[in-house]
Amino acid sequence: MSAIFTLDPQAVRVVCADSKQQILTDLARCFASVYGLDEGVVIDGIEDREKLGSTGFGRGVAIPHARIDGLERPVAAFFRLENPVEFAAADGMPVDCVFGLLSPSQAGATHLQALAAISRLMRDERMHERLVSAPDAEALYGLLVNVIDRDAA
Question: φ and ψ at 44, to 5 degrees?
Fold first, then answer.
């Protein structure tokens, strides 16, 4: 996968959620189950970051992220929402794609590089359209891996 962060296929999901809080909770559960992290630590980290300002990126995308103890390298999760959800995004639009990122607590530059890579990926309108129209999690993972691996090369 990418030299910047790990994206496990089990962390790519199509999710039905009806609130920002439910998305954040589901994201914490996903990180806990896929990467073996403490769910409470993850949700606390994500919510603490969200208190500083919404991670609603705009154009239907949110990038909830945090730095937490116990990680060796950044890890990611991707949710395509069945229905758009209000997320207090910068442009006021609801989100339908959520790209979560957790980095080691001391990963200053690495965390920023991973966020920048995700941001570049999600700014691509064609990519966003392909993600929104992908039929299932397997197709989503294929799209993401193809672009992430290409950009890492």
Answer: -60, -45
